[in-house]
Predict the 3D structure of the following.
Amino acid sequence: MVDFAPRVTLTGTIQAQVQNDLSFRLSGRIVERSVDIGDHVTADQVLARLDPRTQEADVESAKAGVRSAEAQLKQATATYQRQKALIDSGFTTRTSFEQAEQSLRTAQASLDSANNQVKSAENRLSYTILRAGEAV
């Protein structure tokens, strides 16, 4: 018996139905890869980790900046309070009082900036962990 059905040949590629392109937000050396190509992952599962030493050092440095800014604020606050007491009793100049007030504002702004640097450094540290956005 002879088969008269036409023979069909198709070309193409086989790939995942759902594919997510993920990457780290910063550069570094990968120290751990938790999944392989083709593995099923759950939402928020850790896929890989970068060496966090540089970012950890940045966090510690930023925290040291906060401690320094806190010390400067404490000193500026004491100076301002002293100048305020002196100006109230008439024993200092308006210029000295205003300089102390400006130093206090500057020290407070420095502390705010240092706290923001800590938050930023902690965010960069969190970027050393690559997580799945959704289950696939």
Helices lie at 53-89, 94-126. The domain at 30-131 is CATH 1.10.287.470 (Helix Hairpins). The first helix runs from residue 53 to 89.
